[in-house]
Design brief:
The protein is 40% helix and 16% strand. It contains 8 helices and 8 strands, in the order H-H-H-E-E-H-H-H-E-E-H-E-E-E-H-E. The protein binds zinc ion (ZN).
Length: 240
C-alpha cells in the first residue's frame, strides 16, 4: 500500500523529473494500454527501482493510478498535465528546429533541458511566435492549449494489414539514434511506403520503399505511423 507521502518540495529539478515521467507515460499509454515499470524505466532511461519509486510518488499526488501486476495509467489530472508537458516540449522542438536550425535528431534532448523554464506565459508567446503550429518537426501532433489530443487517422505499422500503402505521418521514437536510423532507411514523415508483411510471434516487419524491402524490429516499427491511402494497393503486395 502506498505510504503517506511527505509534502514534496517543488524545486525546478523535481518538476523536470516529474514531467519527464508524465511525458513518457503519456506516450506509453497513448492507445489505452497500461505502462509497466520496466517500459517506463526504459523510456526515461532510469533503473526499474527509480521508476517504481517515481510511480508511487505520482500515484500519491493523484497523477497516476497503479494496478498491481498490470501497470500504471494516467488519471484525468495526470493526462491533462502530461498533455500540457508534451505541448510545451513539441513547441520547443518546432522552435529549435525551425527558428534556430538544430537537426531533427538533436531537438528532443535540447527541448528536455529547456522545458522546466517554460511557464504559461512563455508557452503562449512561443506558440504565437511560431504561428500556432499543430504538428512538431517529426510530424507528431501538438496538443491544444486546452490540453486536448487531436484525433489522427493513422496507425502504427504492425497494426495494419499486409499490403497497406500510404504515407508516413509521424514517428513516435524519441531516441535520436533510432530516428537517424529510420531516416537512413528512407523512413521519415512524408515518405511513401507499403507494408510488406508482419512476421508472427513478434517477428520483424517488412516495409517496401520504392523498389527495396527493409526489415524493422517490432519495437521500432511500432513507432512508425502510416496514414493509409484511400484506395490501398493491397493486391500487388507480395505475401510473406
Ligand atoms: Zn521530443
Amino acid at each position: 500500500m502506498p505510504r503517506k507521502a511527505a509534502r514534496p518540495s517543488r524545486s525546478g529539478r523535481d518538476r523536470g523529473a516529474l514531467d519527464r515521467y508524465l511525458h513518457a507515460l503519456l506516450l506509453l499509454t497513448d492507445h489505452g494500454q497500461q505502462a509497466d515499470t520496466g517500459d517506463l524505466a526504459a523510456k526515461v532511461g532510469v533503473s526499474d527501482a527509480a521508476a517504481s519509486q517515481m510511480l508511487r510518488k505520482l500515484a500519491s499526488e493523484g497523477f497516476v493510478e497503479l494496478e498491481p501486476y498490470r501497470g500504471a495509467a494516467l488519471t484525468t489530472n495526470g493526462l491533462h498535465r502530461a498533455l500540457r508537458i508534451v505541448r510545451r516540449h513539441r513547441l520547443l522542438e518546432v522552435f529549435l528546429h525551425r527558428t534556430i536550425g538544430f537537426d531533427l535528431d538533436e531537438i528532443h534532448a535540447r527541448a528536455l533541458v529547456l522545458q522546466p523554464a517554460v511557464d504559461e506565459l512563455f508557452e503562449e508567446k512561443l506558440d504565437a511566435l511560431l504561428g500556432h503550429p499543430t504538428v512538431d518537426p517529426h510530424g507528431r501532433p501538438i496538443p491544444g492549449r486546452n490540453a486536448t489530443w487531436p484525433k489522427l487517422g493513422d496507425a502504427p505499422l504492425p497494426s495494419l494489414p499486409t499490403g497497406s500503402a500510404g504515407v508516413v505521418s509521424r514517428i513516435l521514437a524519441e531516441d535520436s539514434a533510432e530516428i537517424e536510423y529510420l531516416h537512413r532507411l528512407g523512413i521519415a514523415p512524408g515518405a511513401r511506403l507499403v507494408l510488406g508483411g508482419v512476421a508472427p510471434f513478434d517477428g520483424p516487419v517488412t516495409v517496401r520503399i520504392g523498389r527495396s524491402d527493409v526489415h524493422l524490429g517490432r519495437r521500432l516499427a511500432q513507432a512508425v505511423y502510416l496514414e493509409e491511402d484511400r484506395v490501398a494497393a493491397r493486391s500487388d503486395a507480395k505475401r510473406r
